[in-house]
Specification:
Elements (H helix, E strand, L loop, with lengths): L11 H4 L3 H15 L13 E4 L2 H16 L1 H18 L5 E5 L13 E11 L4 E10 L1 H4 L24
Helix pairs in contact: 3-4
């Protein structure tokens, strides 16, 4: 089973994902990455339920801060406010996706780290998918192999998603 960032001592019953929810999560992945990737082979073991919102926020914030530093610190409250406005975080279940590392956008060459969180609000019948990956520019330019070429840094925080 995928490792949750929440408490390690959760009972297996708390980690069980209902079949209907699993279908929604997989459908969200497919809609987000089609036609390049297909996730129908995913199982509940690729996902975990996150029970601690603060740990999820910390995981997201620490990744973004490591890349964008003070710029992210200034937009972090806005990010979490927009997420809350769209999905009502306190009434949502949070899931994370932990890919198998073989056939998905998170296991391509040069990927340094990634995160994938789903905020599922049953009452609103809505899923918000928050995903990000950091890739090494040098790994994607292996054939060029010009050592003197400076690495580019994009200081813009962009968000993609599907909203109903």
């Amino acid at each position: 089973m995928a490792q949750s960032i929440s408490s390690d001592d959760e009972s297996p019953l708390n980690k069980t994902i209902p079949r209907k929810t699993l279908i929604f999560l997989i459908s969200t992945l497919n809609a987000s990455f089609q036609p390049d990737y297909e996730f129908s082979c995913c199982t509940s073991q690729d996902f975990s339920r996150e029970t601690n919102l603060e740990l999820v926020k910390n995981a997201v914030d620490s990744r973004f801060i490591s890349v964008m530093g003070d710029y992210y610190r200034s937009v972090s409250p806005q990010l979490w406010s927009v997420i809350d406005e769209e999905i009502n975080i306190k009434e949502s279940e949070i899931f994370s996706y932990h890919p198998d590392g073989t056939s998905d956008p998170f296991s391509e060459s040069g990927i340094i780290w990634s995160f994938n969180f789903f905020f599922h609000n049953k009452k609103l019948r809505r899923i918000l998918f928050l995903t990000c990956r950091a890739d090494c520019k040098m790994a994607s330019n292996d054939e060029d192999n010009e050592e003197d070429e400076p690495l580019e840094f994009n200081n813009y925080l962009t968000f993609e998603g599907v909203m109903d």
